[in-house]
Amino acid sequence: MDVGLDELIRRREELPILDVRTAAEYSGEAGYPCDPRQGHIPGARHVALAALLERSPEQIRELVGLPEGAEVVAYCHSGGRSAIAVQALRAAGYEARNYPGSWHEWSRHADP
């Protein structure tokens, strides 16, 4: 099941959020001109998709730093990369969910 904007806003303090975009997108140095602002969701950790795809399930758990079975949400710019990340996270034993609106939606949200 995917995560929508309302749930993410309501639960973002308790829910681990992974930004799977590039480091430049995460920092706000790069991004897409269609977005009104650049950066990342407050509290999100950066774990690039490429890093997830290059690792075994055990290595993914070490990288993410959460216990196996933990709930985690992944996002990117528009939900494509994060959908792939969710599969890798699930293979590592996480209860992973995708935020398909991703940064494209969040960057339009009034709460930074």
Describe the structure.
- The protein has a single domain (5-106), classed as Oxidized Rhodanese, domain 1.
- The mean pLDDT is 95.
- Helices cover 38% and strands 12% of the residues.
- It contains 6 helices and 4 strands.
- A 4-stranded parallel β-sheet has the order 2-1-3-4, with helices on one face.
> How many beta-strand segments?
4
Please indicate the percent range of residues in DSSP E strands (runs of 2 or more).
5-15%
- Give the N-to-C terminal Cα separation: 25 Å
Radius of gyration: 13 Å
What name is given to the CATH topology? Answer: Oxidized Rhodanese, domain 1
Question: On the 0-100 scale, what is the average pLDDT?
Answer: 95
N-to-C series of helices and strands: HEHEHHEHEH
Number of domains: 1
Name the CATH superfamily assignment: Rhodanese-like domain
What's the helical proportion of residues? 25-40%
Query: Which outline best applies?
Result: globular
Secondary structure class reads alpha/beta
Q: If strands are numbered along the chain, what order do they take across the biggest sheet?
A: 2-1-3-4
Low-confidence stretches: none
Architecture, according to CATH?
3-Layer(aba) Sandwich
Biggest sheet: strands, sense, closure? Answer: 4 strands, parallel
Please report the first level of CATH classification, the CATH class: Alpha Beta
With helices defined by DSSP (H or I, 4 residues minimum), what is the helix count?
Answer: 6
